[in-house]
């Protein structure tokens, strides 16, 4: 019955597809200069007056017209479709010249009555100007995109006949705007005018846009605002003033914006902000202040206080040193605070007193040396705390005691030497804790009976069921029993000084007894770079983990121990060795007897022996490097990069230009994760816009962090881009170089050589270990990702 139903569904799908194909074919125009194709959409390849024109049509949805190297075109020569298409959701003209008739006349000629969205983009210099008559007859138009056209002027009446417009994008032009330009657009809700020259904007420019909700003035060369600049846009919800070189703001500039929810201010030059600048923005939810070009040093008192709807604050890379204790006072709805990449040295114990709903707190990459014991006492709902890359030396027992909901704690790259015992006793969550790259040893000095003694106590003795406990790159010389038996999934002890992996275990019989108290078996253990002794206790301990508990040991250092040492710890090995010696002795006697009675036998044995022991040569690894770059950077790559790479010995260079199609960008994004290949990415603003124009900054950075066998060359070619600048500044120094580095070719040669070596090692027949290593990398990558809101909108056209 199920099979019969599946057959019916399959037949229905095929019938529908066939009908759609037939319907599409019927839409094909009978034009002598066009070839019609496509299945789900009509695809036309036309040659009109020697010009190549590509037209794609999906009935009732879209019409796309793309011109190739066309400087002039008679639009009335375009084909007319067999049936009128009535209403289309979207019409796009790509790289086509400015028409000498209206867009409405062009669409009517092609069989389109009206459209709701019009996109006109020409990356080449326009040969004409847009004026009012071009938009005559498009009174139903609600969306208009005129970005990346090089437009320098728009007449005041250009939008007079499209007063139903709700969305307008004129980004990446060179327009000087008059205060009358937007006057007809009373229904406008979204306005994108970034990347224009707006140095002399009138204070009445937006006063007629009473319904405007989203306004982007990103990188528009604005250096100051009048205090009444936003008067009239009372319902504005999102405002972007990034990358404008602003050094101050009037205290009342945001006063009219009572509905403002999201404010973005990164890449400016603020030395300070007015104290009460947000006092009227009671609906404000999100604030971004990133990559400020001037040190702000100190935030004003109560800057983000008394904002009942404020949820997210990101102030990163702004040179902050002082955070007032009341800066977030009475803003109890905050869920995310990031003060990362600043110069903060101390935090008052009451700084976060009112943030009872805080979920994520990022204080990484600062200069904190200590934490007040009650600084987190109110954060009972906090789930993620990032304190990595500070200078913290000690954590008291009560510092984390109130963090009952904590799931992720990162304290890597600090100067931790001691942690108070039972510091995580109150937490019942399945946490990820990383204390890597510190100076921990868990040895406490105590005085008892006037004698100084060293007591070894693990602060995790009463911490159970962790997803990950990362103690790598510390100073441990012994392991603790609770690490093995408290039910943790992953344990990383690599790069320590541990000699006895069993800790206090002194007898072979104690190995099994210790694990009988275990809550559950762990999954992975990393022991890389530890001087573990080749003794019987360690052999039995590791064997028990692997054989009895099925624990995966990554880079087991005991594998390097002598066979004879290991054999001495196991009776079964001793018996096997005895039998082997006896067999070899008997074989030697037999060979000697045969040689004595047959003089030709030695030659036959020799040839047979050499036949079996002859080593098989391994094929040399094909050393090929793929250079990936934006098609816009091709001249630079072919002139500067390729010739130098070809001088590298035994390396073949494969150049791969990327032209920015959606499929190709997606493939480029996904190919980061393919191994093993060696790739060199010429990472420029052009490459960023070509490959990642529709991908969030969080995913871009995550992809770059996870990429294997890839070297990024950050090259400042193309238009200024704050997202590129941010990625460049936060790049991984191990897998990236700067083009302006005097030693770039020395570093590139080293990276390429190391990359091929790693690829060769990955090709070795140890797939099991490779899979385990990849599992570890996924766990550690999850820990290192810093939660950051999606701000990639600034890099999209």
Automatic annotation (TrEMBL):
<protein>
    <submittedName>
        <fullName>(African queen) hypothetical protein</fullName>
    </submittedName>
</protein>
<keyword id="KW-1133">Transmembrane helix</keyword>
<dbReference type="InterPro" id="IPR026906">
    <property type="entry name" value="LRR_5"/>
</dbReference>
<keyword id="KW-0812">Transmembrane</keyword>
<dbReference type="InterPro" id="IPR035897">
    <property type="entry name" value="Toll_tir_struct_dom_sf"/>
</dbReference>
<keyword id="KW-0433">Leucine-rich repeat</keyword>
<dbReference type="InterPro" id="IPR050328">
    <property type="entry name" value="Dev_Immune_Receptor"/>
</dbReference>
<dbReference type="Pfam" id="PF13306">
    <property type="entry name" value="LRR_5"/>
</dbReference>
<feature type="signal peptide">
    <location>
        <begin position="1"/>
        <end position="23"/>
    </location>
</feature>
<dbReference type="GO" id="GO:0031012">
    <property type="term" value="C:extracellular matrix"/>
</dbReference>
<dbReference type="InterPro" id="IPR003591">
    <property type="entry name" value="Leu-rich_rpt_typical-subtyp"/>
</dbReference>
<dbReference type="InterPro" id="IPR032675">
    <property type="entry name" value="LRR_dom_sf"/>
</dbReference>
<feature type="transmembrane region" description="Helical">
    <location>
        <begin position="573"/>
        <end position="598"/>
    </location>
</feature>
<dbReference type="GO" id="GO:0005615">
    <property type="term" value="C:extracellular space"/>
</dbReference>
<keyword id="KW-0732">Signal</keyword>
<keyword id="KW-0677">Repeat</keyword>
<keyword id="KW-0472">Membrane</keyword>
<dbReference type="InterPro" id="IPR001611">
    <property type="entry name" value="Leu-rich_rpt"/>
</dbReference>
């Amino acid at each position: 019955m199920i099979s019969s139903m599946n057959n019916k569904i399959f037949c229905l799908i095929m019938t529908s597809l066939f009908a759609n194909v037939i319907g599409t074919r019927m839409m094909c125009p009978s034009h002598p200069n066009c070839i019609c194709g496509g299945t789900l959409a009509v695809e036309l390849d036309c040659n009109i007056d020697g010009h190549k024109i590509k037209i794609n049509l999906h009935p009732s949805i879209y019409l796309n017209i793309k011109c190739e190297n066309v400087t002039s075109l008679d639009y009335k020569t375009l084909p007319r479709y067999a049936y009128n298409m009535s209403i289309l959701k979207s019409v796009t003209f790509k790289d086509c010249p400015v028409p000498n008739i209206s867009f409405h006349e062009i669409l009517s000629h092609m069989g389109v009555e009206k459209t709701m969205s019009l996109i006109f983009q020409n990356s080449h210099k326009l040969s004409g100007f847009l004026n009012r008559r071009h938009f005559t007859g498009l009174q139903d138009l609600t969306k208009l995109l005129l970005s990346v056209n090089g437009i320098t002027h728009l007449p005041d009446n250009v939008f007079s006949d499209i007063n139903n417009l709700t969305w307008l994008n004129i980004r990446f032009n060179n327009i000087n705007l008059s205060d009358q330009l937007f006057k007809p657009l009373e229904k406008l809700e979204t306005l994108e005018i970034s990347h224009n020259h707006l140095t002399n904007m009138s204070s009445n420019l937006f006063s007629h846009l009473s319904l405007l909700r989203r306004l982007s003035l990103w990188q528009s060369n604005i250096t100051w605002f009048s205090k009444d600049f936003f008067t009239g846009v009372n319902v504005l919800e999102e405002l972007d003033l990034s990358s404008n070189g602003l050094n101050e703001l009037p205290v009342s500039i945001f006063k009219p914006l009572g509905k403002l929810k999201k404010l973005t201010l990164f890449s400016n030059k603020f030395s300070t902000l007015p104290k009460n600048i947000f006092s009227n923005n009671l609906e404000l939810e999100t604030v971004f202040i990133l990559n400020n070009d001037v040190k702000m040093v100190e935030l004003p008192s109560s800057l983000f206080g008394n904002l009942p709807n404020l949820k997210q604050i990101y102030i990163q890379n702004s040179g902050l040193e002082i955070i007032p204790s009341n800066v977030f006072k009475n803003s109890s709805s905050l869920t995310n605070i990031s003060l990362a990449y600043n110069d903060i040295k101390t935090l008052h114990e009451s700084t976060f007193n009112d943030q009872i709903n805080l979920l994520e707190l990022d204080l990484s990459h600062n200069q904190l040396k200590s934490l007040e014991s009650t600084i987190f006492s109110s954060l009972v709902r906090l789930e993620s705390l990032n304190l990595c890359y500070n200078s913290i030396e000690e954590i008291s027992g009560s510092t984390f005691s109130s963090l009952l909901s904590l799931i992720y704690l990162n304290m890597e790259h600090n100067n931790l030497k001691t942690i108070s015992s039972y510091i995580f006793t109150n937490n019942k969550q399945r946490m990820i804790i990383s204390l890597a790259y510190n100076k921990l040893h868990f040895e406490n000095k105590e005085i008892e009976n006037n004698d100084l003694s060293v007591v070894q106590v693990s602060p995790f003795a009463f911490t159970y069921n962790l997803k990950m406990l990362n103690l790598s790159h510390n100073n441990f010389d012994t392991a603790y029993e609770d690490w093995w038996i408290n039910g943790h999934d992953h344990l990383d002890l690599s790069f320590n000084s541990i000699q006895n992996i069993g800790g206090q275990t002194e007898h072979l019989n104690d190995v099994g007894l210790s694990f009988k108290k275990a809550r559950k078996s762990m999954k992975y253990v990393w022991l890389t770079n530890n001087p573990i002794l080749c003794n019987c206790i360690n052999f039995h301990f590791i064997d028990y983990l692997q054989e009895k508990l099925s624990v995966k040991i990554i880079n087991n250092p005991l594998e390097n121990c002598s066979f004879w040492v290991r054999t001495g710890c196991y009776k079964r090995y001793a018996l096997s060795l005895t039998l082997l010696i006896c067999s070899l002795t008997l074989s030697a006697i037999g060979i000697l007897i045969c040689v004595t009675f047959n003089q030709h036998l030695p030659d036959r044995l020799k040839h047979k022996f050499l036949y079996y022991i002859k080593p098989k040569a391994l094929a040399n690894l094909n050393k090929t490097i793929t250079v990936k770059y934006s098609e816009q950077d091709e001249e630079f790559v072919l002139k500067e990069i390729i010739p130098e790479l070809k001088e590298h010995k035994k390396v073949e260079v494969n150049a791969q230009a990327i032209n920015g199609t959606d499929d190709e960008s997606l493939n480029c994004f996904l190919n980061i994760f393919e191994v093993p290949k060696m790739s060199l990415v010429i990472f420029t603003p052009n490459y960023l816009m070509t490959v990642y124009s529709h991908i969030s900054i969080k995913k871009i950075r995550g992809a770059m962090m996870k990429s294997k066998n890839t070297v990024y060359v950050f090259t400042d070619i193309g238009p200024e881009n704050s997202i590129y600048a941010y990625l460049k500044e936060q790049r991984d120094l191990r897998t990236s170089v700067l083009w302006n580095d005097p030693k770039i070719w020395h570093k590139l040669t080293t990276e390429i050589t190391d990359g091929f070596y790693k690829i060769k090692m990955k090709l070795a027949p140890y797939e099991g270990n490779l899979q385990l290593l990849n599992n570890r990398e996924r766990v550690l990558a999850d820990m290192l990702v810093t939660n950051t809101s999606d701000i990639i909108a600034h890099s999209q056209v």
